[in-house]
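Case 332 in the screening queue. Each case pairs one protein sequence with one candidate compound; here the compound is tryptophan. For every case the pipeline is the same: read the inputs, emit a complex structure as tokens, and attach any notable structural observations.

Predict complex for case 332.
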Amino acid sequence: MEKAIVMSGIRPTGFLHLGNYFGALRNYVKMQDTYTCYFMVADLHSLTTHPDTKELKHHVARVLAENIACGLDPDKAALYCQSHIRETAELYLYLNMLAYKGELEKTTTFKDKVRLQPDNVNAGLLTYPVLQAADIMLHRATLVPVGKDQEQHLEMARNFANRFNHRYGQVFPEPHAFNFGEELVKVPSLDGAGKMSKSENQYATIYLADDDDLIRKKIMKAKTDQGPTEPNSPMPDYIENLFLLMKLVSAPEVLQTFEAHYNSCTIRYGDMKKQLAEDMVRFVAPIREKAEAIRTDEKYLREVMEKGAEKAGKSAKETIEIVREAIGLKYY
Ligand code: TRP
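Case 332 output:
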């Protein structure tokens, strides 16, 4: 049986954090053994919001390195840069003829970005979902592992695929959001409010590039209180979050011990945070060190990008030939 095709894009802005790891990357790593996977660094998309490209090369290297350090394997998945696949631009152009100005203008992410950068409301920003649909459709992918914030873009991709098929004949399957059968793990932030994210409170988020001392500092600063006074009390959010983090990185016995201390009102949060900090350091340090070694190995990164572009390019070329034929652009 043919393997289902998985495609996702990773923006080369910001550093990867624990939320990206447990919420997305860990799933990508599992998928690469089961599906035909295309994982792409969305460098062209980044031009819509980050026109200054001085740091782009470093960002791309870092994103690739961090993803490989977390377990993405360039020999299993196609790990590539969007700009290396020229066919993306061509499919994007065709899909732009099937995308309506009205629907693009009412996209939530577009409206958010207009608010954030009112002086640079460029057409690329408006057609961002069209470019994303081109990324996916170029591999005729059906499974797209993305977070909730991308669901509207996926719905648009389905619409563009259906419109194309309707006008020019059946070429594209419908792409759907996908998370490998498991609930997406939300990693809570250290300030008790919401989840870890790139843009919010930096001190409440643990990045895979944080050094040991910074990790310890961030965890020791996390909010706690005097502890429960009644046995088996419900936990306030910020305490529950510490337990959730412990569940992700500590041994099960460690977690059980502190839960028992909590339930018997003998917990000492200072000790708990020290333990969590050490377990977190043990978890993050090897990833950070591996990423650092890869990031600075230009030769290796070049090989990764070339290998990825070759795999993604092959699939892209096959699709683009079918698309040209279907549209009626083959004159001889
Ligand atoms: N827009 C996605 C994000 O912001 C990144 C992305 C670009 C993407 N192309 C994609 C995601 C294709 C899934 C499929 O995270």
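Case 332 observations:
- The mean pLDDT is 95.
- The first helix runs from residue 18 to 31.
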